[in-house]
Specification:
Elements lengths: L1 H20 L9 H21 L3 H18 L4 H12 L2 H27 L8
Length: 125
Amino acid sequence: MKMRNLIFLSLALFISSCSLFSNKPKDLIDEEELVNVLVDIHIADAVVSIKGYRVIQDSLTISLFYDDIMKKHNISRKQFDETIKYYSENVSKYDRIYEQILEILSKKQKQFNEEELNPPKKEDL
């Protein structure tokens, strides 16, 4: 009888521990959309950095950029924060997301550099 109780208790602990680790938020932003959101966030961070805003203005400006990004992607700040927390606890998924982000940002940088070297002609505008 004690052995069966021990097995039952062990099984119950195992199941409950599994549910503790699967803390997937109900409003989780899917990976593809999260990539797009984070690309926009990194671009906003770069704009603020390049513009050289002062620290107080910087935090206000970036907050406004983030609010606009959240609206653009139709997500809430809470949903974003919970999604980031979830993916940061799942390192392999987070790495995969950031590989995609880096690829997109690299392409955008290359496109920007090409446009800087070859600006459109007046007749093309």
